[in-house]
TrEMBL record:
ATP binds at residues 207-214. GO terms for molecular function: 5'-3' DNA helicase activity; ATP binding; DNA binding; exodeoxyribonuclease V activity; single-stranded DNA helicase activity. It catalyses: ATP + H2O = ADP + phosphate + H(+). SUPFAM superfamilies: P-loop containing nucleoside triphosphate hydrolases. It comes from Pseudoduganella violacea. Its EC number is 5.6.2.3. A helicase/nuclease that prepares dsDNA breaks (DSB) for recombinational DNA repair. Binds to DSBs and unwinds DNA via a highly rapid and processive ATP-dependent bidirectional helicase activity. Unwinds dsDNA until it encounters a Chi (crossover hotspot instigator) sequence from the 3' direction. Cuts ssDNA a few nucleotides 3' to the Chi site. The properties and activities of the enzyme are changed at Chi. The Chi-altered holoenzyme produces a long 3'-ssDNA overhang and facilitates RecA-binding to the ssDNA for homologous DNA recombination and repair. GO terms for biological process: double-strand break repair via homologous recombination. This is RecBCD enzyme subunit RecD. Heterotrimer of RecB, RecC and RecD. All subunits contribute to DNA-binding. Belongs to the RecD family. One of its GO terms (cellular component) is exodeoxyribonuclease V complex.
Length: 669
């Protein structure tokens, strides 16, 4: 241990960090990182500040916030009270702050102090590859600053260079593709989205569930084919999404929509043939060519993707680092179209890229030039309320779809109330539905929730027993009937499993993923629906928790363990891929967990006929509006909310997830 390292060990701050780590309030990694950086000797052109304790505190918070999805630390938060960001009590923060001794009094003083530290690179100064970056009022880990700067630069240059468009031709095709006879009130935002996307190499299309994001992008593809004329056959289109399931859904929806459109455009455009040349949709990892055990990809700026148009669905799940890699690998001429719901939970990893990109989506903030262009290319008049002369370049390339086609009724009304932060309206929707689509178990008891998990509820399907009964009924015939029969059975069982899901806000505790999975397994075993013999058993649903390139499975994939038809006695895990299934030997899967209950985070990109959202007894920092909204919007036909105490719903709706990020500031330049 060197001298400077010894200087921080055993100090009051060090002891307080240790105490908070022991209490589960801090990651061990954060303390280690803070000690390491505070005592790191760096060549620098600035004098050493001798400010180990404040620097250690800043590093500690930076690392801790990174683990909670923030890409930077705002000096204002550091100077005031960051306890809410950390999910701590003010007392916990005060104890840590007091242990650090005298601290800079405000953000400006923090900035001056950090500027004097040799471990920090103030942007614009001589760069010695210091681990921390100070950019205005934001402190970053270098990696996140680089990613954010790269994403901002790419977004700025893509959005800032409008492409020439033959507006008369665009109008001709858009009128064919959107031949809606009558529309009630307001402009057709779907048509507007296609027109704006045509004008640039970046388009962001956001909207809640069922607002027609896929419907719109299929028309946009047809438009791009049509406008490419004789070159349409050579247009290289790639479809991608963060998870395999979302990718398969995107492909299915686009194929279906293009097939319908082919009839509409007729002989004027060989749409079926053109669509047939598009490849399968892929996960972003596979598109970029992820390599085991490294963060780098096969495709990057030096070896770009071979595409002209890239469509990325479920973009809210794309984290900052992935977005940076994606933009780096995309050739400058290629069009990037991002689809997603800006109000959903942000990615598990750091960053809130879609949310940041869509900051102006609701307000529009279109320029007069955009209004003129849209009118010429689509015949649609954007109302003056969406006009803003100060709107940036990105706003001109962003469209929010505002009308849901599929997601009406009580579930849609509930999602809207939650999204608007209106707890009273949410409560009255939940209590008022007489059609059975919604059920609120306001003071839920655990046995009731377990009963619901096993048996479902009247009119809304019969819970997990449904797929297990199907499994049991067909197992003998499937094992004896040959590969085709077995595959059809596996597909049916998977489909049945996908109809129902229990989602939790938290992982730990009896109302969390771990507790509920164990309790549900016990119930199912008692009911004779599963027979556990160790970890693996017939019918076990599992979720992959780490990418495994060798086995071809990715984080978030969900499969079911079923008997291997070729090796009786051993189990394979079956995953559905669109209409097909593929399987992996169960014992090959190292990183999986049981998936009767899963977190709302992991459910993004999936929908279930009946979704049950289980909230814990106490709030905490994860319980926020975005989580509740994401949980509700996973439900296709039935939604059940189980709360051990009714007040938790209003508390969660009142809370907003906030992620510190400098992306918007960097895009604005
Ligand atoms: N303008 C429209 N006219 C008729 N039907 C439409 C229109 N827009 C969307 N739909 C239909 O509404 C349904 C939902 O559309 P779509 O799947 O494209 O929405 P989405 O926003 O992609 O949904 P999700 O959030 O689930 O991915 C589909 O059945 C689609 O065909």
């Amino acid at each position: 241990m060197n001298e400077s390292r010894e200087s921080v060990i055993g100090t009051p701050l060090d002891a307080q960090i240790e105490a908070l780590t022991e209490a589960g309030k801090l990651r061990r990694l954060s303390g280690a990182f803070a000690r390491f950086v505070a005592t790191l000797g760096m060549p620098s052109n600035r004098p050493t500040g001798g400010a180990e304790a404040p620097l250690m505190l800043a590093c500690l918070l930076l690392s801790e916030l990174e683990g909670r999805g923030h890409s930077c630390l705002m000096l204002n938060d550091l100077a005031q009270d960051p306890s809410a960001l950390l999910g701590w009590t003010p007392e916990e923060w005060n104890a840590l702050r007091d242990a650090a001794g005298t601290l800079p009094r405000n953000a400006m003083a923090w900035r001056a102090m950090l500027y004097s530290c040799e471990q920090v690179w103030p942007v614009g100064d001589l760069d010695f590859k210091q681990p921390l970056v100070l950019d205005g009022e934001r402190l970053y880990l270098r990696r996140y600053w680089s990613d954010e700067t790269a994403v901002a630069g790419a977004v700025r240059s893509r959005a800032g260079q409008p492409l020439p468009v033959d507006t008369a031709e665009a109008r001709h095709w858009l009128d064919i593709l959107f031949d809606h006879a009558t529309r009630e009130g307001g402009p057709d935002w779907q048509k507007i989205a296609c027109a704006t996307a045509l004008r640039g190499n970046l388009a962001v299309i956001t909207g809640g569930p069922g607002t027609g994001k896929t419907y719109t992008v299929a028309r946009l593809l047809a438009l791009l084919f049509a406008m490419a004329g004789a070159q349409a056959g050579g247009l290289r289109i790639a479809l991608a999404a963060p998870t395999g399931k979302a990718a398969a859904r995107l492909k299915q929806s686009i194929d279906h929509a293009l097939d319908t459109l082919a009839g509409k455009v007729g002989a004027a455009l060989p749409l079926r043939e053109l669509a047939g040349r598009m490849g399968a949709a892929r996960t972003l990892h596979s598109l970029l060519g992820a390599r085991p055990d490294t963060r780098s990809f096969q495709h990057h700026a030096g070896n770009p993707l071979d595409v002209d148009v890239l469509i990325v669905d479920e973009a809210s799940m794309v984290h900052l680092e992935m977005m940076a890699a994606l933009l780096a690998a995309l050739p400058p001429h290629a069009r990037l179209i991002l689809l997603g719901d800006k109000d959903q939970l942000a990615s598990v990893e750091a960053g809130a890229v879609l949310g940041d990109l869509c900051h102006d989506a609701e307000a529009g903030r279109y320029s007069a030039a955009t209004l003129d262009y849209v009118a010429a290319a689509s015949g649609q008049q954007i109302p003056a309320a969406f006009l803003d002369a100060a709107g940036g370049a990105l706003a001109q390339q962003t469209v929010m779809l505002r009308q849901s086609r599929r997601f009406g009724g009580p579930i849609g009304a509930l999602a809207t109330a939650v999204n608007q932060g209106d707890a009273e309206a949410a409560r009255s929707v939940l209590r008022g539905d007489s059609g059975g689509q919604l059920l609120w178990m306001e003071a839920a008891q655990l046995p009731e929730v377990l009963k619901l998990a096993v048996q479902g509820r009247e009119g809304a399907g019969s819970g997990y027993q449904q797929y297990l009964r199907l499994l049991q009924a067909g197992q003998t015939a499937a094992m004896e009937g040959g590969p085709d029969v077995h595959e059809a059975w596996a597909r049916d069982v998977l489909k049945s499993f996908e109809a129902f899901r229990l989602l939790c806000a938290v992982r730990e505790g009896e109302w969390g993923v771990t507790g509920l999975n164990e309790a549900i397994e016990q119930r199912l075993e008692a009911a004779g629906l599963i027979r556990r013999r160790g970890e693996w058993y017939v019918g076990r649903p599992v979720m992959v928790t780490r990418n495994d390139y060798g086995a071809g499975v990715f984080n978030g994939d969900i499969g079911l363990a079923l008997p291997d038809p070729l090796r009786p006695g051993s189990l394979r895990v079956y995953f559905s891929e669109g209409e097909a299934v593929r399987s992996v030997l169960a014992t090959r899967l190292r990183n999986v967990e049981t998936a009767f209950a899963m977190t709302v985070h992991k459910s993004q990109g999936s929908e279930f006929r009946h979704t049950v959202l289980v909230l814990p007894r106490e709030g905490g920092s994860v319980l926020a509006r975005e989580l509740i909204y994401t949980g509700i919007t996973r439900a296709r036909e039935y939604f059940t909310l189980a709360t051990p105490s009714a007040h938790i719903l209003a508390e969660a709706i009142a809370e907003r997830t906030h992620r510190a990020s400098g992306l918007r500031a960097q895009i604005a330049g």
